[in-house]
Every structure is written in structure tokens, then in C-alpha cells.
Amino acid sequence: MAKPDFQEMLDTALPFVKRMLAECGDFIPFGIRxxxxxxxxxxxxxxxxxxxxxxxxxxxLESTLKxxxxxxxxxxxxxxxxxxxxxxxxxxxxxxxxFRMAHVSGEMLDVFLPYGxxxxxxxxxxxxxAAKGASFGLTRQQQS
Length: 144
Hints:
The chain is α+β, with helices and mostly antiparallel strands. It has one domain (about 5-130). Helices cover about 25% and strands about 35% of the residues. It contains 2 helices and 7 strands. The protein has helices at about 5-25, 55-70; strands at about 30-35, 40-45, 75-85, 95-105, 110-115, 125, 130. Strands 1, 2, 3, 4, 5, 6 and 7 form a 7-stranded antiparallel beta sheet that branches. About 35% of the residues are buried.
């Protein structure tokens, strides 16, 4: 069951995201890995440039997590990044921190933290909401 692992990844990433938004107003995408036996760990992706494009960082994080899952090193992973999304029942997109999570069981979940930054750099948050993830999954290599 992936739910406790998803919660652990979210509990690990959320305080860091809130701190970065409060201190910097943004953050570079980062990952969370869940080793087979162990607690959630932060991971970054060095794409070889000082100011990388978010898409490049996210692709490297995703490929690293997929590789680790295929080799039986992790049970789950997450990619955390900034974006815009429309909340259910609304029509206007809002700024969000996105927690895109996947588990080797095949379950995927995207969790969104809507936020706003006022003119005096004060960050306010709305309630988290989630949607079934579909964009990246993790699988273990079949043993023969």
C-alpha cells in the first residue's frame, strides 16, 4: 500500500517547500526517494549548468528515480516543482507547489499546495488537494 509512503514523502518535502517559498519566493525542482529500507531522502539533479531549466532538472530526477526503482533500490519517489493548475470546480489557474509521487506498486498521486505571495513577500497557502497521477510511474525489474 502506497499511502503511508506518499504521506512520508509529502511530510518530508512540505516544510522545505514552505521555507523556500518564504525565503526565496521559488525553488528549483528537487526529488524525494524512499529507499527499500529507510526514511525519505532529498535528492537533487545536477544537469551541469548554474541556472538549469526546470524541465531539464525534472527529466533527470525522473530518469534517476525510474532507474533506482528498476534496480530495486527504492520503493517510491517524488518530484517537487512549481507550476500552475486549475483547482477542481474553478476556472482560473493558481500558483502551486506540486508533489508528483509514484510508488513501485504502480500507484501515482499528484498533490498540490496552492500559494500566493503578496507585495510585501508574505506567503499565504490554501488547502492541499490531490489528483490521480499519470505522468510518471515506477516499476521494479522482473526477476527471472
